[in-house]
Amino acid sequence: MENSNFLEDYKLEGELLQIFTYPAPVLKKVAEPVAEFNDELRALCKDMLFTMYHAPGIGLAAPQIGKSIRLFVMDIDFDREEVTRADGSTDHTLSNFNPLIFINPIISNRHGEVLYEEGCLSVPGIYEEVKRAETITVEYQDMWGEKHSIDADELLSICIQHENDHLEGIVFLERLSMLKQNFLKKKFLKQKKKKGN
Questions:
Q1: What pTM, to 2 d.p., does this model score?
Q2: Residue environment code for 75-108, b if the CB has 16+ CB neighbours within 10 A, otherwise e
Q3: Which residues are catalytic?
Q4: How many CB atoms lie within 10 A of CB 111?
Q5: Three-state DSSP class for 61?
Q6: What are the mean pLDDT values of the chain's consecutive 10-residue runs (197 residues total)?
């Protein structure tokens, strides 16, 4: 089944993976290039998308689920709506999927600057404005090893740069001033300790 292109008619299927949070050592490592484009890799991509949608987030890099390889998934377009069940409990429905998978990405042609408030599944609950390039070009491989290139701007550009940072062992907080970085890291670790994680 993994050989079929599940991106074409995407259905929310897969296994939920554990998301590692700061300061897990795997988040500090520079990830290795993906060399084998096999069923195992495609199954991992599917599980990463499933995990990202459920988190919920718009991007998830392999180091965040404990795999130090150059791969990330994202979807900046999907809809998430709260629904109330007959018994009064609430749930969320997800629709309008547009999943993207980037393997061995290389970013070039960085132009302009933009400030955007970012959050991260590995630093939940913390949001801060980060300065990124406004437009970029990214070359990458798909799940079969085919090479592609796209020009990205707006949220797509920001999200690609955020996820690509994870492959370099950089969490978004490390893009901030040292003062802000130290403050937010302490705040996050304090919250984490309080929750007993």
A1: 0.92
A2: beebeeeeeeeeeeeeeeeeeebebbbbbbbebe
A3: 163
A4: 12
A5: strand
A6: 75 95 95 97 97 95 98 95 86 91 98 96 94 97 97 97 98 92 90 80
